[in-house]
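Field reference: sequence -> structure
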Amino acid sequence: MKIAVDTNVLFSFFWQESLTRKLLITSNFELISPELALEEIEKYAQEIKRKLKITDKAFREQLDKLKEIVKFYGKKEYSQFLKEALAISPDKNDAEFFALCLKHSCFLWSNDLLLKNQIKIKVLSTEDIIELIF
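Structure field:
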């Protein structure tokens, strides 16, 4: 099963003991995300390193591991779906995630409840993902 992963879920990957990290690593899902998510992670890299008290090297190593688990797509891959995604996305900042879901006919894994306020894309929380697995 292919699932697009929102940035709020990907941030949890950096916390070594987080359940979300374990799910990302061990699930049999094909995980995808727009490159925008990588840009957001980079934007908050200093904050992540500060909160976790990790070095830049450790952060980069974790980011490389994340890139092995999640396939990141450039905007060109799903650009033809952006107009429709903008129309349905409750948060315009998440339109690229919706466009990727439309392109790949898949769910979105996000803990942002606002994103469930539309009917076109099924949005699954981490709890929903756990239920799917078990």
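Note: The longest helix spans residues 56-69.
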